[in-house]
Amino acid sequence: MSKFYVIVPIVVGLLIVLGTRNTNDYLISPGNATPVAPLVKIHGVATNPTHDEIMLADVYEQQLNYFGWIKAHFQSHVQIITASQLVEPGIPLDELLSQGFLQMSDAKQAAETAAFRAVGWSVPATRTGTVVTAVVAPSPARSAGVHVGDEIVGVNNTTIRSGCQLIASVHSLAPGTALTLHVHAVKISNSGVLTYGASIIVKVATAKAPANVASSGCPGVTGVDRSYLGVAVEDGFSYKLPATVSINTASIGGPSAGLAMTLTLINELTRGSLTGHHVIAVTGTIDAQGNVGPVGGVEQKAVAVARAGASYFFVPDSGGDVAAARDARQTGLKIIPVTTLQQVLSELRSLGGAKPQPVTKPSSAL
């Protein structure tokens, strides 16, 4: 009997330790399906007073402790991924939240532009610089205090208006070259709102480029990079919209709501029922040209939208997303693969939806 009473406290203590220690794995599980219309406000043009139910879908993401890791293997419609799968090689996990909020900001900008263009408005675009999407650790940029979301608009006395301009300005420099970066530094609120102030100066010295740095593909940039800053970048744009749009995505990150926001805006800007009064759910990235791109967690999203009562789920026809949605096996939910915004609108018309007819007549003179 004495052995029994000695072993029990040891086992209980071990279980408590295992229950509180985190693993290096994360659980992706079904989240919510949220109607987008209540999140949207448009000022400056007339809008449709009725709203179709167009839902965005999200997933829950949480780091697993050892108990959670064991439990997850007995759950359905979940996915276990490692920390390294959440970010690109060399990118620290502490950038993950900022990356998600930047991606959502980009998605809203693209959705607004694609929606107004889809209903006939001319939306001019202006290049503004190059936006930092990731910072390698360690790297010269990280040491200098460059952050995800910062917009680089100049190097020394050269104005920068694209990622390729930045890459070309660093590509052939000798390692250790001192540079002065002109940066619009970003501030990201706890809820994910990005704001920019006046340009600041950031001093940085280039480092020898690692051997595994991929080719940029930029015109005129050939051969092996001599030095680098340690950032991933995207082109920055400003779009002149005919109205002021606000989409409340507080604390939601990532680009996967882009297509859902676009359709909701089109429904707001046009007459009739865009969806034919069907309850639909949508996932997929969107760019300003209306191209739909792949996302993650689609099996879990399919579960969420089925639980919310959606009849149709529009899913990017790339990256394995369609197969993942079908793997969820949700009875009564029809999966519709799409690659462009125009294809989505065509599919909606086949379901009885109205062809977009703008409430306010578009003007090309902005």
Structure notes:
The relative contact order is 0.18. This protein has 366 residues and is of the alpha+beta class. The mean pLDDT is 90. Helix content is 28%, strand content 30%. The strands form five sheets. The protein has a six-stranded mixed β-sheet, with helices on both faces. α3 packs parallel to α6 and α7 packs across α8.
Q: What is the beta-strand fraction?
A: 25-35%
Radius of gyration: 24 Å
Biggest sheet features? 6 strands, mixed
Structural class: alpha+beta
Helix proportion: 25-40%
What general form does the structure show? globular
* End-to-end CA span: 87 Å
CATH second-level architecture of the largest domain: 2-Layer Sandwich
Series of H and E elements? HEEEHEHEHEEHEEEEEEHEEEHEHEH
What is the total tally of β strands? 18
